[in-house]
Amino acid sequence: MNFQERLFDLRRQAGLSQEELANLLGVTRQAVQKWEAGTSRPDMDNLVSLADYFKVSLDFLVTGKEAAPPPAPTVVNNYYHHHRWHYEYKSKRTLFGLPLVHINCGPGIHWARGIIAIGDIATGLVAMGGIAVGLFSLGALSLGLLLALGALTAGIISIGGVALGLFTLGGVAVGWLSVGGISCGVYAAGGVVTASKVAVGGTVSAPLAIGAAAEGAQTILIPLEGLKGAELDAARTAIDAACTGVPGFVPWLLKLFLR
């Protein structure tokens, strides 16, 4: 068995793709491809790194004179190469063909794919990363089927600087029920608000508009000192009437902005 065959065999036993091995070493996938094709050889630094990662001697890696121990079944790696670090953990247990936990972080772009995924880009049932996509997601750019948290988010429940979803909370919020500095929805509350049914806040526009400055078919102005007594009761009654048939937490949330 020659060098390229040993390298291919070690990589395959470790469950790594050419791209994953290249990321560990800080080289391109094409470089690994050329090593395994026999059209080029790694330099001494990369040979040392390969022997260290696969837990074999340089003699075995280059000449095949020693027996290589079996690689670990789970990829757990803290790797430093020319001051570049990369950490990856992939659990042995899988579900639907995905590892239960996959962590893949470091300089550059590293993609984590698992039931629980943490990485520069993360996709999974629970995803956390710079870009996160999942049932529950947390990231600078976050897309979650149920819950999304981040700077720019989209999900059924969406919380972020800019939030889009069914229930949203953010600096700019757009949703069926939305709360934010600038808010738009069927039912909405915040600083500057527009809604197709009820809007409560500072400057508001809706069929039922309740705010410091209000425009709509029915308007209730909120003075600086807030609504009190009969005026507060009238605003609450108006919200209840406009929210007929919706879950009780919707009018409850809107009433919080009356004071």
Write a compact overview of the structure shown.
The chain contains seven helices and nine strands. It has 259 residues and is an alpha/beta fold.
Description:
- There is one protein chain.
- Strands 1, 2, 5, 6, 7, 8 and 9 form a seven-stranded mixed β-sheet that branches. This protein has a two-stranded antiparallel sheet with strand order 3-4.
- The longest helix is centred in the C-terminal third of the chain and has 14 residues.
- It has 259 residues and is α/β, with parallel strands linked by helices.
- Helix 2 crosses helix 3.
- Strand 3 and strand 4 form a beta hairpin.
- The protein is rod-shaped.
> Can you count the beta strands?
9
Biggest sheet: strands, sense, closure?
7 strands, mixed
Low-confidence spans: 79-83
Distance between the termini: 79 Å
Helical stretch tally: 7
Structural class comes to: alpha/beta
The coarse silhouette is rod-shaped
Mean pLDDT: 86
Strand % is: over 45%
Order of helices and strands: HHHHHEEEEEEEEEHH
Name the helicity range.
25-40%
The radius of gyration over CA amounts to: 28 Å
Please describe the topology of this protein.
Layout: H1 3-13, H2 18-25, H3 29-37, H4 44-54, H5 58-63, E1 75-81, E2 84-90, E3 94-95, E4 98-99, E5 101-105, E6 111-113, E7 116-205, E8 208-215, E9 218-221, H6 229-242, H7 249-255
Parallel strand pairs: 5-7, 6-7, 7-8, 8-9
Antiparallel strand pairs: 1-2, 2-5, 3-4
Name the descriptors.
259 residues, alpha/beta, 7-stranded mixed β-sheet, 49% strand
